[in-house]
Amino acid sequence: MYDPTIFENLKVAIENTVYDLDNIDQLIEVSGRKDLMDMAVMSRMLELSFHLKNQTQVEATIHLDAAIEDLAAEILEEEDLQTGCVLKVSFQLMVKDPDIKCMMINELLKDIWQPELAISQKVACYYPCEEGQAYENTVTILFPRKINEDQMEQLPEFIEHILISLERLNDLD
């Protein structure tokens, strides 16, 4: 009998929570979904993108990844290896004056999420960058350890943190 992997179980839980917020609660709109298997390295990846209903300025993307080492250790029931998935969330938005806004975004997100989480920002513009133009900012929060089914009950809180982040980032301007 088929026994779903940690990745499959987490993927279904994330999708159910997010799609309920879209279809039932109508708080968000799902704008993209990728469920990929990379055959070159035998890894799995889920990307689920959404934004708040009628607020398209900031988009969130949940990234869930499982490498071949994790999938193989789980299937082979390797007891001494910690199996799980890498989880991160990213936010895409446009910013003017990135020197000021990026610092504000960093502080805002550290206030919502755990202060010790790694927050990175990638700011880009189309060359030539002109003064006063808006820059593309991709803000990524990476969680320090792999997750598995033991963290399943924390997924609603995780999604709630994303919703709060979306609200606060939308109010930033």
Uncertain regions: pLDDT < 50 for 5+ in a row?
none
- State which percent range the strand residues make up: 25-35%
- Figure out the total of helices: 4
Largest sheet: 6 strands, antiparallel
Total number of strands: 6
Percentage of helical residues? 25-40%
Radius of gyration: 18 Å
The strands making up the biggest β-sheet line up spatially as 1-2-3-4-6-5
Mean pLDDT value: 92
Give the helix/strand class: alpha+beta
Q: List the secondary-structure elements in sequence, H or E.
A: HEEEHEHEEH
Tertiary shape: globular
Distance between the termini: 53 Å
Explain the overall architecture:
The protein is built from 4 helices and 6 strands; from the N terminus they run αβββαβαββα. With about 170 residues, it is α+β, with helices and mostly antiparallel strands. The protein has a 6-stranded antiparallel sheet with strand order 1-2-3-4-6-5. It starts with 5 loop residues before the first helix and ends with a helix.
What is the gist of this entry?
This protein has helices spanning 6-23, 68-75, 98-112, 155-170, and strands at residues 28-38, 43-52, 55-66, 86-95, 118-124, 135-142. With 173 residues, the protein is an alpha+beta fold.
Question: Topology, please?
Answer:
Elements: H1 6-23, E1 28-38, E2 43-52, E3 55-66, H2 68-75, E4 86-95, H3 98-112, E5 118-124, E6 135-142, H4 155-170
Antiparallel strand pairs: 1-2, 2-3, 3-4, 4-6, 5-6
Q: Which terms summarize this structure?
A:
globular, six-stranded antiparallel β-sheet
